[in-house]
Inverse folding.
């Protein structure tokens, strides 16, 4: 009898916690941020989306339409629920876009977070101008500009809690997160590293992009790009750990949740990336998770049935991003969502 009562209590507790965690519907609207100080060569305008909690239940639609990717159900342009709510800013990976972590954004909005994501000019799906790609220091600044915009916008400032700002990034977005946490680019360290391991993916990419190859660019890259307003970070299988100085990593004092993906199907080497990062950070405020079945591309969306085959036909080689991208990936997403919300709620 006691066992039955215990089980019923556990079930009720779990049900109540689930209901509280999913107490809102996710709303979504377009996010556009004009460059406040445009360069004569061209403005760096930012475009993306804002997901936020709403009490509106309909009309439900999908946040985007794709033959490959399953969308997230949202109420577009709905009135927001009464805030303030914590803010999470997302940063996509190399040549990704603001849709890449829509699965996470929608889930966070349903759990009471405002989430902003933009497509980084120069390193996004639709913007690959080599001159913009070279300006990698602009990526962390993009995230700070998103926070500036939200905190100063009359329509958005009351929606967010300025003392509860978080950031999550995947791959190159993880690199962006570390820079915002206080990691300082170290061109000399990267040069030494790539001199002995030239075949590592990060060496080919950053070298090909001509990162920090002039004195002016090096000064920009090695500047302090941190943003003290961000309270904690989630880093998803980052690349570029070896480009940060050891001393700067050892000084990072904000909480950091780091996921490493042991299925290394992206070209990144876990020992010199996520594992090396967690080993370089001060202990006490970090958490490291490395599920044995996790791959680099599991941080992208869920693939529709036939998505793998469609990519294999139309973009040969890209189909790897949809490998096990259906139900197995959906289960991993739930684990990631729980870990991120649990970590942020305690930070």
């Amino acid at each position: 009898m006691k066992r039955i009562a215990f089980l019923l209590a556990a079930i009720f507790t779990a049900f109540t916690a689930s209901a509280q965690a999913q107490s809102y519907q996710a709303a979504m609207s377009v996010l556009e941020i004009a460059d406040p100080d445009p360069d004569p060569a061209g403005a760096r305008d930012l475009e993306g989306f804002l997901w936020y909690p709403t009490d509106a239940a309909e009309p439900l639609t999908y946040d985007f339409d794709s033959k490959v990717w399953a969308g997230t159900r949202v109420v577009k342009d709905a009135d927001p629920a009464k805030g303030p709510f914590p803010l999470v800013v997302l940063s996509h990976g190399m040549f990704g876009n603001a849709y890449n972590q829509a699965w996470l954004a929608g889930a966070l909005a349903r759990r009471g977070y405002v989430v902003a994501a933009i497509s980084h000019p120069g390193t996004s799906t639709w913007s690959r101008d080599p001159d913009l790609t070279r300006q990698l220091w602009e990526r962390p600044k993009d995230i700070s500009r998103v926070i500036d915009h939200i905190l100063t916008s009359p329509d958005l400032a009351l929606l967010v809690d300025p003392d509860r700002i978080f950031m999550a990034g995947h791959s190159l977005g993880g690199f962006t997160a570390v820079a915002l946490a206080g990691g300082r680019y170290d061109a000399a360290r990267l040069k030494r590293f790539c001199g002995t391991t030239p075949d590592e993916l990060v060496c080919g990419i950053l070298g090909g992009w001509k990162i920090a190859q002039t004195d002016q660019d090096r000064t920009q890259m090695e500047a302090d790009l941190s943003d003290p307003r961000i309270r904690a970070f989630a880093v998803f299988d980052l690349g570029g750990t070896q480009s940060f100085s050891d001393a700067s990593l050892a000084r990072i004092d904000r909480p950091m949740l780091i996921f490493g993906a042991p299925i290394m199907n992206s070209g990144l080497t876990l020992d010199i990336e996520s594992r090396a990062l967690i080993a370089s950070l001060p202990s006490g405020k970090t958490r490291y998770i490395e599920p044995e079945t996790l791959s680099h591309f599991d941080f992208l969306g869920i693939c529709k049935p036939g998505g793998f085959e469609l990519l294999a036909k139309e973009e040969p080689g890209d189909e790897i991003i949809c490998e096990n991208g259906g139900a197995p990936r959906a289960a991993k997403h739930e684990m990631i969502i729980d870990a991120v919300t649990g970590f942020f709620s305690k930070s």
DSSP finds twelve helices and ten strands in the chain. Confidence is low (pLDDT under 50) at residues 1-20.
